[in-house]
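A.,

Following up on our hallway conversation. Structure tokens first:
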């Protein structure tokens, strides 16, 4: 996974983002609180959190596309709410894999672009506090 990040997503490699788990229904990533992810306010930089959250949704799409006809996928919208300072490891979880699969299948069947908005929630591992809630709008289109 580190080699993939280095080649395709170098910022995730630099930040030390890890894939915690991935199933067809749920994706989990985690990001450390280190000097590479820290902002001047002693919390995890918002862009690093967004990258980890996006990966938790994007890997569900990549999993759904693995046995399908070629499709393009693109983020067309994003919204974030930061609830609390992230000062330790944060795990981002997206549990909308089934909806992503259905949207991809619809894009393949109809040969038209389809969009879906999915969410990812970031929780600090040391105390269970929610630190961020993010939504990503993905667009899928059969190539």
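Then the amino acids I'd put at each of the 143 positions:
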């Amino acid at each position: 996974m580190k080699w993939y990040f280095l080649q395709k997503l170098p910022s995730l490699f630099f930040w030390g983002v890890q894939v915690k788990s991935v199933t067809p229904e749920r994706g989990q990533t985690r990001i450390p609180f280190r000097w590479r992810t820290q902002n001047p306010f002693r919390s995890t930089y918002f862009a690093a959190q967004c990258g980890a959250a996006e990966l938790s949704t994007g890997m569900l799409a990549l999993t759904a596309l693995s046995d399908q006809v070629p499709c393009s996928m693109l983020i067309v919208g994003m919204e974030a709410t930061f609830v609390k300072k992230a000062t330790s490891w944060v795990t981002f979880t997206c549990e909308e894999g089934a909806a992503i699969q259905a949207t991809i299948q619809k894009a393949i069947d109809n040969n038209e672009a389809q969009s879906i908005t999915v969410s990812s929630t970031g929780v600090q591992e040391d105390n269970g506090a929610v630190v961020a809630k993010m939504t990503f709008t993905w667009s899928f289109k059969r190539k």
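The chain has a mean pLDDT of 94. Curious whether your intuition agrees with the design.

B.
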